[in-house]
Amino acid sequence: MSDNPVVLVTGASSGIGRACVEAFLAQGARVIAAARRTDRLEELVAGREESVLPVPMDVRDREDVRSALAALPAEWAPIDVLVNNAGLAAGRGPIQTDDPDDWDRMLDTNVRGLLNVSGCVLPGMVERGSGHVINIGSNAGREVYPGGAVYCATKAAVERITRGMRMDVLGSGVRISQVDPGMVETEFSLVRFDGDEAAANAVYEGLTPLRPSDIADVVTWIAGRPPHVVIADVLVYPVDQAGSGKVARRKG
Q1: What is the per-residue pLDDT across 34-92, written as a single tens digit (0 to 9) for each?
Q2: Is there a catalytic annotation at residue 237?
Q3: What PANTHER family does the record tag this protein with (predicted)?
Q4: The domain 6-247 belongs to what CATH superfamily?
Q5: Predicted confidence (pLDDT) at residue 199 exceeds the cutoff of 80
């Protein structure tokens, strides 16, 4: 990673995305913060206009992505590092009773969104012979649990896309990596439980989950490896987790 790289982070308004923005800024990068929630972006940028560029963008909308990235000021291009972080889980019931609209939200955000942004950024990286794409997956992409079939499938797709992407750019000098977090305390569960704070908090009861900053530390470390080194994938758990649904709740 260069001394003053330009980093694009999707889903930058909260959670892991916001933590990645802060971590890259701390290392001297300039960060393009992309998200749908403009109020959150304004709050994130306040007082840091020289180092953070807010880009309202819905990764699910291919034309929106294309127009937003095509309109970047010249001083914010080219993009050196892309962190494909935007993602969500919606619904928690079995397929036979689940809401198909939730399937669409997950597929459109977690899979199509990653492809839409990568499809705009990768050509320039390949042409320049440098760049780094870091996809945020999940341990759920490595296993399946009841009520999570579609979400797990979307994150498994991220893993397959990441591997294929690495093969597609082989020989170009572009690096492709993936980070798979386990339980991280963000708005993730709140979204999944439709705003039910009690249900969302119960997910983390009795244990200390990962913090968004823990994942951001891993992401910036990966981006900071020498140009000849690719950290292909990293699985990150809190100490009291050993898989989906496999947790030790040791605190009363």
Answers
A1: 999 999 999 999 999 999 999 999 999 999 999 999 999 999 999 999 999 999 999 88
A2: no
A3: ALCOHOL DEHYDROGENASE (PTHR42901:SF1)
A4: NAD(P)-binding Rossmann-like Domain (3.40.50.720)
A5: no
Q: Cα–Cα–Cα angle for 75, 86, 97, nearest 5°?
A: 160
pTM score of the predicted model: 0.94
**What contacts 167, CB < 8 A, 6 or more positions away?**
none
Return the beta strands (E) in the chain as ranges.
6-10, 30-35, 52-56, 81-84, 132-136, 175-181, 233-236, 241-243, 246-247
Q: Report CA torsion sign: 30, 34, 35, 36.
A: positive
Which residue among 145, 151, 204, 237 is the active-site one? 151
Domain ranges within the chain, ordered by starting residue? 6-247
Hey, which residues does 41 pair with through a beta bridge? none
d(CA 87, CA 155): 9
Strand 30-35 and strand 6-10: the pairing is parallel
Q: Which residues make Cβ contacts (< 8 Å) with residue 76, sequence separation at least 6?
A: 6, 30, 32, 53
8 Å CB contact between 30 and 53: yes
